[in-house]
Amino acid sequence: MARIGFVGLGHMGAPMARNLVKAGHSVAVFDIVQSAVDGVAAAGATAAFSAAAAAKDADFVITMLPAGEHVRDAWLGQGGMAKAAGAGATLIDCSTIDVGTAREVAAAAGKPFLDAPVSGGVMGAEAGTLTFMVGGPADAFAKIRPILEAMGRTIVHCGDAGAGQAAKLCNNMMLAAIMTVTSEAFVLAEKLGLSHQALFDVASKSSAQSWALTTYCPVPGPVPGSPANRDYTPGFAAALMLKDLGLAQMAAKDVGAATPLGAHALELFRRFVDEGGAGKDFSGIIAMLREGKV
Ligand code: NAD
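Structure for 3-hydroxyisobutyrate dehydrogenase, as requested:
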């Protein structure tokens, strides 16, 4: 079993670290919020007194932090994690951040460093069924795969440094546009006198079938587990979708890719968040569309 350092014990990091403990690994954990550390320590992890202390002596060091600036600071700046990690350690960042920062940290870390963002949300983190999209050297990927398997079900090597983040932001840009147009279709159906169930029964078996429709259906009823049935409690919060759409647009600008629907989805989600939707599931954007506020 491996020695693992884990830093960032929020909604995602805490259940991920607990699953590593459950798999029998020896896990040292740190977060700037002491109660987060205490919570995971109660499940069998060791509390570290700093990010560097969690990294020291570990075979694998993992971060799960909010954004690029936190990741850069933790590994290369004040956190000092890249320096503190031992010569044989493999470093993994599971946060969703911009491709540029992922590549910059990987290049400066001085040790094998992989970006491994996830999809599957808090439910996937708790159930250990996350999808990991990984960027970094193939030999390091082979090493980290068994560690990621304790937290996820689907693990894909996407390419070199930054490729995991690229896959994540492309996936979420597609998801945002698909969810938006699925919501538009339900609102149009309402106005045409077509029932939610009838549209669902047709579209879920036809060419418009999608995860947004069959798992996260934006109206209550057809998919009982979807956030629409619990007043759009996330799930995947609109604020996080807005963040990912911003990262996608940043990347598109950097490389000169045309992403007109992605850009428009960003504007729609910005408005939804500005009007109080930040903490709602992203499928809650249907309410804004229904009100015609676009
Ligand atoms: P969160 O805000 O709940 O957790 C982040 C944690 O990092 C917090 O506990 C915070 O105290 C800690 N932290 C911040 N700076 C730190 C530092 N310097 N040292 C140590 N700890 C520090 O966020 P989350 O929902 O767990 O998301 C984490 C990452 O995963 C984000 O990049 C997010 O975009 C991504 N993500 C989230 C979801 C989701 O559904 N929540 C799904 C997929 C990906």
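The chain is about 50% helix and 15% strand.
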